[in-house]
Design brief:
The complex is a heterodimer of chains A (430) and B (264). With 430 residues, chain A is mostly helical. Chain A has 19 helices and no strands. The radius of gyration of chain A is 27 Å and the shape is elongated. Chain B starts with 9 loop residues before the first helix and ends with a helix. The longest helix of chain B is centred in the first third of the chain and has 17 residues. Helix content of chain B is 42%, strand content 11%. Chain B is built from eleven helices and eight strands. Chain B has 264 residues and is of the alpha/beta class. In chain B, strand 7, helix 10 and strand 8 form a beta-alpha-beta unit. The chains are: A mainly alpha (430), B alpha/beta (264). Chains A and B meet through helix 10, helix 13, helix 17, helix 18 and helix 19 of A and helix 2, helix 3, helix 4, helix 5 and helix 6 of B.
Amino acid sequence: MISQIVFAILLVSAAYLFYLNAYKIIRNIKLGRSIGTIKNIPERLKIMLLVAFGQQKMFKRPISALLHLLVYLGFVIINIEMLEIIIDGLFGTHRILGFLGNLYNVLIASFEILAIGVLVACILFFIRRNILKIKRLNQAELEHWPKTDANLILIAEILLMSAFLLMNAADYKLQSLHVTHYPPLGSFPISAHLATLLPESVSTLFFIERFCWWFHIIGVLIFLNYLPYSKHLHIILAFPNTYFSKLTAKGKFENVASITAEVKAMLNPDLPAPTTEVIRFGVKDVQDLTWKNLLDAYTCTECGRCTAACPANITGKLLSPRKIMMDTRDRLVEVGQNIDANKEYIDDNKSLLDTYISREEIWACTTCNACVEQCPVNINPLEIIMGLRQYVVMEESQAPTSLNNMMSNLENNGAPWKYAQADRTNWTEK
Amino acid sequence: MENTLQIPTAAELIAKGEIPDLLFWVGCAGSYDERAQRITRDICKILHHVGIKFAILGNEESCTGDPAKRAGNEFLFQMQAMTNIEILNNYEIKKIVTACPHCFNTLKNEYPSLGGHYDVIHHTQLIQSLIDKGMLKPADGNSFKGKRITYHDPCYLGRGNNIYEAPRKVLESLDADLIEMKRCKSNGLCCGAGGAQMFKEAENGIKEINLERTEDIIDTKASIVASSCPFCMTMLSDGIKVKEKEAEIQVLDVAEITVKANNL
């Protein structure tokens, strides 16, 4: 009875804590600007199904895609087991779903096979990250916390899966010793082998089984509450993030509507001056981004496929699209904490531009869309870079000199070079 | 022959009471850059050859505003766009072909919400459709037969607008040995010119982007690298020059290859 009460308290506290964190993340995302009404729902569902659920874009890199698929399938399917663990925990039952008979055997057997798959994949991921030193997993922006974060997740997965298998092994052995309370339920293709390594003592086996059971469920609850602080949040946000994907051609950059009104008024003085409220042009801080950009930032799992494909980064420039996303999230979290402390945002003399992202970074972008193309969960770092450029150019007039020259040529001659408009058709005479 | 190109402007055609079936948007590079001018003239040769009634805007054409928009100057972009749209709409232009993926992308994707609705195609799409219709047919013994050719995807044609097949189909029609670079199609590497980089020095790094891309080209051992963007043309030609491979590798636009293969 006591264990049931402890279990219920743990479960409710973990759920409540997660709710509080999720609420804060949603509030932070809502600090972003509107992107209008969401249309084309069938198309969006299809993208979510293919890209998030079906992991379509992961397969641009087949090896990591296969390993990731193992972990993903394991995560999704083994979590069915959570249902049983919760019922057992609350009602003091044991393997309550055992009445499913053969289906139960199939379920437990597949959980075991997946668990060993997850275990192997996580160990390989750990080796790739820490021993093979793959470039995109060891770049500057991952130093310190991000690298620790990644390793913590892998270690947690390895521990959880080990506990799961060990628990089954002990259970299987208790079953085979005909211990009461452990009726023969489930099929254990992996842990049956593991069981041979366990001691024969019933009390030790009982301890191992209970310890692993509690370790697994407490581990999962801690993991749930670690998510909001981790890059690993993508396991939830990948779904909404792909649902809210940009549906138009990647080459299309949205026209700024508030500027359209002003330009129309400039070109046609007869029109009344625009009455729309004046908002900042471009992006200086996270509140100037759209809420989709902010959702992107929370969704990013720092895999670095964007950065590995970025022509600027490949050739040694400071720009890294992954860092753009990480900076955006870090600044957004900081703004959120500012709001928590002060009830509303109080200027802290910091901003996404300059405090986090330097001008050298944003000017190195070729707008080639390689980062957008590569992202397995349809994050768009390019929109953030463009927003920052717009602020620097339109609010501060601080474009690089050569670009100012190009723009003044454009204004005066209708071409980015210093040629006379009257010479535009000279090519017909050559 | 070259100085006899008779290219009517939209204004001239309208004055004669005619309406062009197609507007050829030449673009700034195509108008002023010497290397790109050769591509412009070749596109005109193709249009003449197949008898399409086309016109250019001539001195009324002005930059689409793409480099201003990518540099962050939305004001200047929209000024350019609205001025151009007014001219295009005055001439009741319905269909446009461009020689530049940047003009193509801007006219096709970014003009509609400002009031400019046109059917916009890139010249590689036009050439492909002419080949499909049998209006262009590479000569049997064309000089590209059996040559090793690789194709560089311009970002604003490929990733930007998912046009990967049209230029490749044109090249396949030559009976050439079309070979892909290790980074191609949606994984293609930028030449380094986009996003207004063409008009500024690169930030500090360890290498120029066009040299990184040129190495991909050299790795294919192709004797011709085809592209379909005047900016890629400049970047890749420079890269080949720096790598001292001018004797071995030619940089040609898909339009130039078409003209040569069809003996136009």
